[in-house]
Design goal:
- This protein is an alpha+beta fold and about 270 residues long.
- The protein has a domain at about 20-210.
- It is about 15% helix and about 25% strand.
- The chain is built from seven helices and 15 strands.
- The chain has helices spanning about 105-110, 115-120, 125-135, 215-220, 220-230, 240-245, 255-260; strands at about 25-40, 45, 50, 65-75, 85-90, 90-95, 100, 105, 150-160, 165-170, 180, 180-185, 190-195, 205, 265-270.
- The strands form four sheets. Strands 1, 4, 5, 8, 9, 10, 11, 14 and 15 form a nine-stranded mixed beta sheet that branches. A two-stranded antiparallel ribbon has the order 2-3. It has a two-stranded antiparallel sheet with strand order 6-7.
- The termini are far apart.
Length: about 270
């Protein structure tokens, strides 16, 4: 039987979900770290090709693989029109093995052989130190800061205009924008403490590459699962062993894309705005 499509019967928003038309406001926003996912080792890629070392004894050689971590931040007080609260993420995959806002660790940093001088430049360490300062704790791993109340300074970046003339706006953050949920009034000097609402979205809270669980795996969006399976250390890993023991119908969950917040929080703007 030939396929038939009744265009008039299709939902206005598509896929049964409403499209997001809001963006996280620029400036300080209350937030929480809601997801920590270890994605394994991946080859550094630029424009679809492995990155090569440009100087030193190893000039011309391919850069070493990096351990990729995906953090998710929810902004529970940010107004939104879609089905999910607004979020920001690190290590968003795109293209042929590249990542937007990549958060990675070198083997030397993971093994504790990198000097403090060079470690201080690593984004992972910058996140770690920012979380410590914001929470008044001394945890040694990022997952320990899950659900802690924070204030995060958000900046906006305009994208390229679309064919219809709209300009997408993307919300961004950096480690140095993570602060305690309090601010000093510029006139009175009085410190105001902000209440951070609890997170409301559904996420994979923690995925440990060395000790994966089926529950955590099923909470990860399928497109992220696919990237994790391409890790250079996937073969022979605890993740591969876990998946081999699962029935085929439990290795992925096609419904994940319907229950996981989108990565992009860009909102289209009218021309000239």
């Amino acid at each position: 039987m030939a396929v038939k499509v009744d265009v008039d019967a299709l939902p206005e928003e598509g896929a049964g979900k409403s499209n997001e038309t809001m963006v996280i406001p620029e400036g300080p926003n209350v937030a929480r770290l809601v997801s920590y996912v270890e994605m394994g080792f991946h080859t550094p890629i630029f424009q679809g090709k492995p990155i090569k070392i440009t100087e030193g004894k190893r000039a011309g050689e391919q850069k070493d693989d990096e351990f990729i971590i995906r953090l998710g931040f929810e902004f529970p007080a940010a107004e939104h029109t879609g089905d999910y609260p607004l979020t920001l993420w690190t290590s968003i995959p795109y293209g042929k093995g590249e990542f937007v806002n990549k958060l990675s660790l070198s083997r030397s940093l993971m093994e504790g052989t990198l000097s403090k001088q060079f470690a201080a430049r690593a984004k992972y360490v910058k996140y770690l130190e920012a979380f410590k300062a914001a929470t008044g704790t001394n945890h040694q791993s990022l997952d320990a800061f899950l659900d802690e109340p924070l204030i995060i300074n958000v900046t906006h970046r305009k994208g390229k205009p679309g064919k219809d003339g709209t300009v997408p706006i993307y919300a961004n953050m950096t480690p140095d924008g993570i602060n305690k949920p309090e601010m000093k009034h510029p006139m009175t000097g009085k410190v105001e403490v902000f209440e951070v609402p609890p997170a409301t979205g559904t996420y994979c809270k923690v995925f440990d590459w060395e000790a994966p669980t089926v529950e955590a795996w099923k909470a990860i969006p399928k497109f992220i699962q696919d990237v994790m399976k391409k890790a250079t250390n996937f073969n022979g890993s605890a993740l591969e062993a876990m998946l081999m023991d699962l029935p085929d119908d439990e290795k992925t969950d096609d419904k994940e894309s319907d229950t996981t917040p989108p990565d992009n929080t860009g909102a289209p703007m009218k021309p000239g705005v």
